[in-house]
Design brief:
Layout (H helix, E strand, L loop, with lengths): L5 E3 L2 E3 L4 H6 L8 E6 L2 E6 L6 H15 L1 H13 L1
């Protein structure tokens, strides 16, 4: 998708097509991260920080997935005894 660089005040800007804006679920006022990689400009929607509780739950699920086999063995042991 080709876009032209335009002047906005003392800065340069590139507009985001509405189809891409909607696809990425962007909203006016959202923050984005802009970086470059091998001559390409990367624009990513900035992630909202998550609460400590949500982070705990994510970490718990990762740990349970990592140790699923051990947890299954313990569960079966409890059922047998």
């Amino acid at each position: 998708m080709e876009r032209k660089i335009i002047k906005v005040g003392d800065s340069s800007a590139v507009t985001i097509p509405s189809s891409l804006f909607k696809k990425l679920k962007l909203n006016l006022g959202d923050s984005v991260e802009i970086s470059d990689n091998d001559g390409k400009i990367i624009i990513e929607k900035k992630r909202q920080p998550i609460s400590e509780e949500d982070q705990f739950l994510l970490d718990l699920h990762k740990s349970m997935d990592k140790h699923a086999e051990s947890l299954r063995i313990l569960e079966n042991y409890d059922k047998e005894h």
